[in-house]
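Possible regression after last week's pipeline update?

I re-ran a chain I had predicted before the update to compare outputs. Posting the input and the new output here so someone can diff against the archived version. Not blocking, just want to make sure nothing changed silently.
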Amino acid sequence: NVKTSSWGDKPTFDFEPKDHVTLGEALDIIDIPRGVKVSGSRSYFLKGEGARLHQAVLRFTMDHLHAKGWTLFSPPLMANYDCFMGTGFFPGMDQANIYAIGGQEEKDAPIEGDDLYLIGTSEVTVASYHKDEILKAEDLPKRYAGYSMCFRREAGTYGKDTKGLYRVHQFEKIEQVVLCRADQEEALKLHEEIRTNAEEVLQALKLPYRVVDVCTGDMGKGKVFMQDIETWMPSRDSYGETHSCSYLGDFQARRLGIRYEDGGKKKYVHTLNNTCIASPRILIPIIEIYQQEDGHIEIPEVLRSYMGG
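New output (post-update):
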């Protein structure tokens, strides 16, 4: 993966900085032990001002995209097999990270399966919104922003990123999903647009980050071009991935049956997606970068109106 750009200066501290878990527990805004007690490993509670900060960054991002004319979705959190297959998550290795609904037995009481699965990203349901439809060329591109809870089993990550809020089973995310004409030049311009939207949020929060071109061996199936945004996290002494920006050509559209009519011809749309924000992972750099010597957290200026000043 090759770094293409970076923004912001890494913070320096004139005191010994703490990690987000230590800070969060001291302020009583993060409780991981009780999250594990209730839901097992990689679980957590955000409470009090921690829950409010979580909502503030999500609401700020929604308002940012709304001001740009994006259509906000609150989509289903469950989808059927066809939607997961259509977006490329089924079949294959990604399937191991998806929670299935029902179909197991508990204490001798059979639970009937519903052939539904919990989404790991609203890309699954928002990209499937126009499944088996024929759109009009003049109505493209479609700029959608799906706000949803996301669920991931994190299979295959045993022992990796186990501390804190970096790799958890449940989180909330605002995902940009674009449907455009079958024109690679136009699609790559849109790729730049959705990545820039995410960069603008990070810049407003004054969080240092870098952008990397992802090598083909690290891209998921169906992807034509992919970039990651990695945000500086002091406790890791490195950048951590916070955004993933992908162009998939007509891969998803063929599987989902999404076409458009252009001059009497029917063509498959091209699709793109990118995280605009995902929380609580983004709380790691916010809490750690904005920490004060006395252990309190300064609220980023753009979030203060959402936190009651």
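Follow-up from reviewer: compared with the archived run. The two ends are 40 Å apart (CA to CA). Marking as no regression found.
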